[in-house]
Amino acid sequence: MPERKINVTTLSPNLGSGLRALCCLAALAVAPISVSAEEDLIGADEYEAACLACHGVGGKGDGPMAEYLSVTPSDLTAIAKNNEGVFPLLEIFQIIDGRTELGAHGVRHTEGWEMPIWGDRYKEQAGSKYGPYGSEQAVRARILELVFYLQAIQQQ
Known about the structure:
By secondary structure, the protein is mainly alpha-helical. 46% of the residues lie in helices and 0% in strands. It has six helices and no strands. The radius of gyration is 16 Å and the shape is globular. The two termini are 15 Å apart. Residues 1-17 and 22-35 have low confidence and may be disordered.
């Protein structure tokens, strides 16, 4: 299948930049993505650092910490399969970020919720390194690379 490119300049200039970015994310969720080896490596490295302990090397939910959790980690390779063949990019982004109230892993801050709030952790790690607004962009970039990696490992 040929690589699809999205030209953000053709989006309506009346759309706010946040809405324009959301439209781009939505378009990427349905477009086949060609991932270069370098981009794949970034997401894989992030997965290894943040997810492997619970979700396992292959993303099946069988990581070395899984047996110690009260909730079995999800099979991350079956996200699209369990969603009628569609990878819900924005929802997965929000779940990983964790700063938006979602109930996909349970109700946040209640018993049974064991997934870390990666957005807070990444923001703390970034500190003021990127300036007052740059740290949020760095956090979102890390999460997005991880989401792209998860999209790449989906079962066919």
